[in-house]
Amino acid sequence: MSIQYKLALDVMSGERDPFASIDAAVEALKNDDALGVFLVGDENIITEHFPNDLMHRAEIIHTDQVVSMDESPVDALRKKKNSSMRLAINLVSEGKADACVSSGNTGALMANAKYVLKTLPTIDRPAFMKAIPTKGDYTYMLDLGANSSCTADQLYQFALMGNIVAREIKGISSPKVALLNIGEEEIKGHEMIKEASILLEDSSINYVGYIEGNDIVENKADVIVTDGFTGNIAIKAMEGTIGLMVSVLKDSLNDDSIKEGSQFALDIFKKSIDPRRHNGALLVGLNGIVVKSHGSSDSYGHYHALLTAIDEVKKEIIPKMIESFEK
To answer: What's the rounded Cα separation, in Å, for the pair 291 and 64?
Structure first.
């Protein structure tokens, strides 16, 4: 099968890179004959670690410039124009790659992606959006850190974008959209939330009202909208809680007499709520697909971030967003 789509991979910026990103690319290529990749980073390291039998579907873009995790977004944008992150985004802008995946500095990725790709018509700011496991399914949540404060109009725009992604990826004709708030009652929340609620009530979106933090995992909505400050705290609190649950459960089932059976149960439990299986936050609102992989994730997590990008490419999310906003 010939290559049908290509991903531009920044393989240098994550905490476990380049090996985590390279190993994820290898796994993706083995499982998808239609995939091709650009590996952006140090050519010597990539060549040494990447298998020769897959090189015909990979192209190495060499650079030894990397954006560090503690670098300011402004410095990354102005002083690191040849960084692995920037060059990967450029490949999308130039039409050579269908999507970019990076596990690097979140602020730098946001700044570079917005500068290079620009936002879609009618969209003020891009937002980070990802799938969150729920009881029996998953929900999409945005924003998860791109915008620490938002206006009601911007929350409304996030809802529009989330609605399109959920509709196309989950195959739901009318996804349920909710606003994250401190209560379900109409009187709860600050003015910005109340104004956003009015905008959604007057829209064609299937708006189901407010949702509280403890109901995020209850599968009450297909899309949950919030500002980036609140969303980032919520998602990290959930990930930390999952880690705590796994640790406590593992300790409680450590008796030798039940160790074999309990380990099997623990493995099933961990797999069902493993955050790595839902790794990959889509930076929606840009004129191109950019996926942010968790900076500390291993190759398994990065692999799922690649799957997220591939899903967006296959479902033609960008053209469908543009079409929807033009209407």
So the answer is: 22
Would you say 146 and 125 are in contact if contact means Cβ atoms under 8 Å apart? Answer: yes
Domains parsed from the chain with CATH numbers: 5-123+285-326 (3.40.718.10), 127-276 (3.40.718.10)
Q: DSSP characters for 45-110?
A: HHHHHS-GGGGGGEEEEE--B---TTS-HHHHHHH-TTBHHHHHHHHHHTTS-SEEEE-S-HHHHH
Structure tokens given for 166 = 């959920």
pLDDT score recorded for residue 99: 97
Of 188, 191, 238, the closest CA to residue 210 belongs to 188
- Tell me 184's DSSP state: S
Reported as a single tens digit per residue, the pLDDT across 173-205 is: 999 999 999 988 877 878 899 999 999 999 999
Residue given tokens 């945005």 in the structure block: 142
Separation of alpha carbons 229 and 215, rounded Å: 19
Spatial distance between the Cα atoms of 27 and 187, rounded to a whole number of angstroms: 50
Fill in the amino acid letter for 252.
S
Residue 158 has pLDDT above 90, yes or no: yes
Question: Tens digit of pLDDT for each residue in 246-302?
Answer: 676 666 666 555 555 556 555 655 555 566 677 888 999 999 999 999 888 889 989
Q: Is 233 helix (H, G, I), strand (E, B) or coil?
A: helix
**Rounded to two decimals, what is the model's pTM?**
0.86
Angle among Cα 210, 215, 221 to the nearest 5 degrees reads: 60
Question: Which residues, listed in sequence order, are joined to residue 61 by a DSSP beta bridge?
Answer: 40
Beta carbons within 10 angstroms of residue 272's beta carbon? 9
Q: Both tokens of residue 99?
A: 């999507």
Give the containing element (helix H, strand E) for 146.
none
- Report helix angle 317-326 to 299-314, nearest 10: 50
The answer on pLDDT for 243 being more than 60 is: yes
